[in-house]
Amino acid sequence: MSDARITAGRKLAADLNAIRTENGVSVKDVMDATRLAENIVEELEQTGLVSNPMFNRVYLRSIFRSYARAVGLEEDRALSALEEALGGTYAGSLRLHTGKKGGSEQGDDTPPPEEVLDHEAGEDNVAAARPAATPTSKPSAHPDPASPASRVVLLPNLRGMWAAGIAALVLLALVALALMWVFSKSDLAETGIDTESGSIDMPQQIDPPATPEPTLPDTLRIGVTATVEPLDPIRVTLDMRQEILIPSAVDTVVLPIEPLVRFPLWVEMDSTVVFQFLQMAQFEREVDHATITVEGHVLPPDWVDEQGVYTVHRDSVLAWLMRLSDVP
């Protein structure tokens, strides 16, 4: 980690703290709007997080985007300042482009509360904004005089056609009788009836094998995959301590996870992060954009309660697998 990057990160952090203070936004307001932990917000306003190995470029861009919305700062300028700090060249450009209240030179660009709510709500309101489908026009009930249906058709002489039709019917009947005879011989052979001697060889009845009941290991593996859009972020709570590997721009970081402590997790599109749990795992926020699997089985998407918490219990998974095994 270069000294220029550390110095640029502290300069950026001081400017972010000043902009938040001038706009009258408290740390608690930022925590409520971004759902970031208090220690993350404090470190963001002290070092800019650019020297923390736990946060790669994707994590930092997501955190800066959420922080900018919370304090009334343009996201593009915040992300541009972040890139300068990561390169060790940030020298206060964020403050040069902002006024007393942290907005742009032409005025405050703070999005109205409705815009913030719509962004948090995601795609829930997209269906209401779509225009109604235009009904297709019905075909005309009056035929075109020039169409083939309105033309006069001259029929040929049908005397010879009657004889040809009767001959064709007789031929089809003979073919059908021959096919019936062949199929009946095949069915008798499958049932064990000897058509020459008339003896019947009854096949032995074999009982189908019993379906074993599903079992689960003591420690369950649970995977989270971003299938609709990047998880930005999803909240995870597990009941056992473990460590996961998070790749950063410089190296792979080992992130320790304490039991029953909710933590944020950023997952890129089509990427999967696998955890372990004993009895219970919970997921909050962005659950409708993720696919959750246990031991390779895709869990039902309707395990979400009224508070939007997706809870996975060992007993629920086992009962669900038993119901699947009973389906014929």
Task: Provide an overview of this structure.
- This protein is 39% helix and 17% strand.
- With 328 residues, it is of the alpha+beta class.
- Among the domains are: 3-121, no CATH class; 220-326, no CATH class.
- Strand 3 and strand 4 (252-257) form a beta hairpin.
- Helix 1 packs across helix 3 (38-47).
- It is elongated.
- It starts with a helix and ends with a helix.
Task: Draw up the topology in text.
Blueprint: H1 3-22, H2 27-34, H3 38-47, H4 57-71, H5 75-86, H6 93-96, H7 113-121, H8 126-129, H9 159-191, E1 220-226, E2 231-238, E3 242-247, E4 252-257, E5 263-267, E6 272-277, E7 280-284, E8 290-294, E9 297-298, E10 309-313, H10 314-326
Helix pairs in contact: 1-3, 1-5, 2-4, 4-5
Give the CA-CA distance, first to last residue. Answer: 60 Å
Shape assignment: elongated
Rg from Cα: 35 Å
In which range does the helix fraction lie? 25-40%
The largest beta-sheet arranges its strands as 6-1-8-9
Number of DSSP helices? Answer: 10
| Helix and strand element order | HHHHHHHHHEEEEEEEEEEH
How many DSSP E strands? Answer: 10
Q: Low-confidence spans: pLDDT under 50, at least 5 residues?
A: 99-157
- Note the main sheet: 4 strands, antiparallel
What structural class do you assign from the helix and strand content?
A: alpha+beta
Report the oligomer: single chain
Mean pLDDT: 76
Beta content? 15-25%
